[in-house]
Amino acid sequence: MMIETRRFVLESQRAGHADALHAYYTRNAAHLARWEPKRPPGYHDLDAWQARVAAQEEAQRAGTRLSIIARDGERIVAVANFNGIERGPSRSCTLGYSRDADWGGLGTMQEVLDAAIAHIFSDLGITRIQAAYLPENHRSARLLHRLGFEREGFVRDYLKIAGRWRDHVLTAKRAPQR
Asked: In this structure, which of 34, 62, 132, 176 has its CB flanked by the most CB atoms within 10 Å?
């Protein structure tokens, strides 16, 4: 899969992206730490990224995940992961995303996710995308709202983020009616 937006090229993750993903996550480790699970020692080692990308590529081949990178030239500026893809009656998935610290406030995630979500709905036939965010993450709340996600609930101790169980706001976006 390859999609071009106004500023970026979006591609499905593959083994050849391991070095660039290693650089992206190493460069942004401090920026992402408050929004992600606590990472164990060695998580950001290159060989760990090579193994992780290989496993993600296998999940993509199995149709249970789509991991998308967004590049500005050779540099990855954002990542979108559509996890737990269901092809049965629910035809749904869960969205997770991150962006480079240097690309904040520039509409980066809006541009990337607009294109990625359109692909998920039209090309993969998914009818529902779920996303959760920490209640204090106002930027994610605004982004998801702009993308058309609707708040559906609040879950206590939903995910272990930065070393502790955290509450999350649950949202979802449904595909346009066909």
From this structure: 132
Q: What is the CATH number of the domain that holds 74?
A: 3.40.630.30
Residue 134 near residue 178, CB atoms below 8 Å: no
- Position 171 in a domain: no
Q: Which residues pair with 159 in a beta bridge?
A: 166
pLDDT at res. 177: 76
Q: What is the number of structural domains in the chain? A: 1
Domain assignment of residue 53, yes or no: yes
What does the pLDDT look like over 99-114, one tens digit per residue? 999 999 999 999 999 9
What's the domain range around 20?
A: 2-129
Give the pLDDT score at 48.
Answer: 96
Task: Give the C-alpha separation, 112 to 103, whole Å.
Answer: 12
